[in-house]
Amino acid sequence: MSTLNKEITGLIYDIQGFSVHDGPGIRTTVFLKGCPLRCPWCHSPESQSFKPQICWMDIRCVGVDKCGLCLNVCPQQAISLGDIRESLLDNTKIQLIKVSRELCNDCGKCAEVCSAQALFISGTEYTVEQVMQRLRKDIPFFETSGGGVTISGGEPLSQPAFTLELLKQCKKEGLHTAVDTTGFSDFKLLQAILAYTDLFLYDIKNMDSSLHNNVIGVPNEKILGNALRLAEAGAKIQVRIPLIPLFNDSDQALDAVAKFCLKLGDAVTQVQVLPYHAYGVTKYQRILYQAPVFEAQVHSEEKINHCLDRLKSYGLPVVLH
Amino acid sequence: MFEFQPLTPRVSRMRERYRTTFPTLSTERARIVTEYYKEHVAEPSILKRANLLYKLCQEMTVLVEEEELIVGNIAPTYRGSSLWPEYGINWLFDELKDGTFENRARDEESHEISQEDKEYILSIEDFWRKNGISPRMTAIMPDGLPKTFGSGVISFQGENMCSNPTGHFNANYDKVLTKGFGAIKKEAQEHLDAMEGRVFGDKAKKYTFYKAITIVCDAAILLSKRYAQLCREKAQTASEVRKAELLKMAESLDHIMENPCRTFHEAVQAVFLYQLVMAIDGNMHGLTIGRLDQYLWKFLDKDLKENRTTMEQAQEVLDCFFLKIADCCKVWSVASARNSGGYTSGQHMTLGGQTKDGKDATNPVSYMMLQSAARLVIHDPPLSLRVHKGTPDELFEAAIECAKRVGGIPTMQNDEIIIPALLKKGFSLEDARNYCIIGCVEPAGTGCEWSACGGSGKESYWNMANALMLAINNGINPLTGVQAGLPTGYLYEMKSFEEVKEAFVKQTNYFVDWHITMTNFYELVAAENMPIPIASATMDGCMESGLDVTWGGAKYNSTGVSAIGCGNVADSLSAIKYLIFDKKECTARELYDAMMANWEGYEPLRQKILNEVPRYGNADSYVDELARWATSVFIDRVNAATGFRGSYRPGLYPVSAHIAFGKATAATPDGRLAHTPLADGISPVQSMDKNGPTAVLRSVSVLDTLNCGNGTLLNMKFHPKSVEGVEGNNKIKDLVKTFFSMDGMHIQFNVVSSDTLRAAQKNPEEYRDLVIRIAGFSAYFIELYKELQDDLIRRTDQVF
Questions:
Q1: Would B499 disulfide with which of A87, A108, B277, B494, CB 3.0-4.6 Å?
Q2: Residue of A nearest to B689 (CA)
């Protein structure tokens, strides 16, 4: 068993300490790469692909004049001269590069020579033990605050074996565990991790399946069904509702979601509302993709409060993210 | 959530006046001092200082401003500054002559000054250049010191050494409130009477001491009575309501200082007057108010029980007191103003913590102090919350809520490490439990210790980054080219990392020893020329020993020295070890050449150092152990040093010397460019903490704080989004509690985004009240010198 564990690896794009919105207390969140859904408002587009990807952060680049090593190493000739920007520090001009998404095959040679880490690979293989070494450093903070580990993504259940082993190890070491999931997986995978998961952070995005399918790319029956079965099986669920303009912010949509939450009964520990924001756009640029056309006005405070009140009127434990 | 009450209309108006009045520089004090020094050449120093103080209390202008409930002023105009030429104002002579003073920008703490005053100051230049404290220091300069000039590690130079008093202490306010100067004078007089006609042995010196005490007691009482008189005069033309107020204040002012205080209002007024008398005497150098909640509560408790006042009235009095502290201005040299900035006077107060018998010390005044700071949104006085295992959650939350509103006020200090640290330095358990925070972050005894936390005036800081530079450059600071240190060889000649470490130990020991040597000379100059009987009058031990605080008369004695650049040294050692010896990614020669070229032409190597080399602040033991090792070399050497009063205490805090010291430091192996700021306190190098606050705290907690008795400083910046609301408060509380459980000593934080700071830089008018914690103090952001503003912006926003 233990030798097998060592061989299992997970593709991870970030491990974040002091994650304060992903469950109770001070938490460390492990972000797994790869997701079956394509939410157009996704604020972590680097989490979608199941493969390591080249990322490009222009503010880190020191400029071709001082470095320029990447220009010579790309086997695909995907890197060329790009914009000129002004240095934030001393107003000098910095000649940036640009990367062609069409030509780039994510081989990572440029990232190897980029000591500024303006070009870097998003997605690194970790063994369970490697992740645990990082998590153990935060144990004193978990203990004081009643926090723990959250496995997020992407979709953790898209890397089921790794997620399961990581959860098992966390529980073996006495850590509180949470899994942040879309719920879009076979129930048997959820069932497998249930015994090792103290809390599910579970997205309910829209109760209308065809709208769900049209916008996100998958219908919602499986998601809703899994939620009910989890509740029945005794799971604790923190429902998360990304509040998206013109998608799920009508009274009717909110009523439907609220009624569903009531059906989940005592399983629901909290209903967390996450208002839409546009931070994801720059992250698309970072992974060299065009952000999907998704133009939404950020909600006003009044509108957000209205939505919160609407949900609260069902007696649900609603909180704003 | 903890609720803050609204300000009263009176307090709001007073605050507005404070925020909109421009400071003026006055020569009134300078005139009295100059005349006195010229006429009284023959007087022994301690009597000269005492009689001068009496004359100042007799002649300096007293003011009672409209609506004031607490009175006292340090200059003849509201929010004015005075001058202390006897401590050295050569910088002012220079600035007036070359026009710098008049052309100072607001962020350089500009002051208005009249033509007449300007001419007067220049007329006393010759006298004070010869008779100030600095020339006295120059006169006893040890023979070997000039060899260290240009090292950049210590900053004792031939001229303008030590322009501040040895300060940074907490006098015994409680004695003033509960005994009064009448009783203190009586005690001193009894010593004199017992000695009269039989001054044998070493008692002649003690006789002058007790004599001086009787004089300064009279000075303090006189000043109070002059304010009483002025209140009565003002009452004659005042409205009925104000008239009653003024007459009541007059009655109090006639009584307090001489006699024990009877009410909370009287006690608060007496604290401020004692503060003022000490400021008039000695240059406001780290005059610490200390555990205000502990010595005020008994008065308020009695008032409330006897229905003499309400909590609202008491709060208004305390608010007025806070505003009085804030309006005490002190003019610094333009160089110092750039480094500190924001017209700060550092009159620190401590709240919470434990009582002498180890119980939780929180009382209603603790909360009132937070109310004053949070609602007035003022950067001065700085506050510290003492945290221990029994600190009530409610106090913790109120403090966090306050710190969110007013950048970094209060800072948080850990009883569970500071009390043991003081015990190690010879404190009794009771006195250790009764410690307070001095100046910025320095723990010291309450009313019982001449702590000189700030060391000797402005030369208290020690540049650790340059010690490393000299270690790898044969004792030569690349910026000066002078061989000021020991010839320990060049980096490219060193065959192993052990050799690098050995060289660092040699330079550190050499320059710590020189620093202590010079501080000891300065203490001698201070003891001979600048005794402080007004502090000695209350300080535990002085009356018993018959010795002034500067002579070693206090119950406890210590002197602080603080090293700057811990993060840079850790990261530099890490870069050398990682790149040259462990991974062999470059040769020592390459790294050396790159550094000497200020990284010009070596950007990829520099980026590797910034991004690949293990950096302090990320919970990586590879480099954290180096941080521990390097700071311990300094800590152990300082702890072993002695002066004539007692031992030394090492600290790791910068006030804002990390900026000035950075200017005097060439490019360092951690990828830092020449002349840019060093890391502040024990914080990681700016923007190099990439794994969030928990990782920073893990790294920082490896340091040997238990032996770092003069304090440490960790500055963190949180993005408002990540610590919103009650939940956010809880997260900060848990973070601090965990850090303290891992032996962290001190933490302070700002809750503000870099975007907000950039916006404030662009549109200062819209951010007039944005208070931010810098290093050892807080200030209005827009009143800070631009380089300090930039340094704050560069720090990592902890946002998740």
A1: B494
A2: A17
